[in-house]
């Protein structure tokens, strides 16, 4: 069995490389996360590189125990950090080794989904290894839309890049990365989205 954590570092490194090579305006471009720019997404995913467990606990307490409030607060605040600092944090071994309560599977899905929030929005290929995208897609399909409140009733998902398919009904055809984004409750740049429960 593949060590899912081993795909986390290349995903974040790939995102850092993409942002380093791109124009400065890329940081201000909208992501697939509603209301967040690329800069906000990077500030969000790099939280583990900045916040100690004690600091995180204090931030969560200040947010009334609501992780959504904490995420928005930290993303909006820390998006103001210098680009060089955010890039260093994307390359941080601390971030690459971090695991949420969901363990390595949670760490990988976090890295892949938020990487796709940037790359799909920018019309760029995924920065995660193809195997990592496939692993996260399998996790989301197995969860049957529950993680992000997506309703897969009467939907057939078709991965255009691998030929794999799941479910029965109205076909939704896209590359694996875009399917991951759809299953994570995102709206694609072309306006496609899966219905919500």
TrEMBL record:
GO MF annotations, alphabetized: metal ion binding
InterPro entries: DinB/YfiT-like, Maleyloyr_isom, MDMPI_metal-binding
Domain Mycothiol-dependent maleylpyruvate isomerase metal-binding: 14-92
Residue ranges the record marks as coiled coil: none
Gene3D superfamilies named among the record's database cross-references: dinb family like domain (1.20.120.450)
Protein name: TIGR03083 family protein
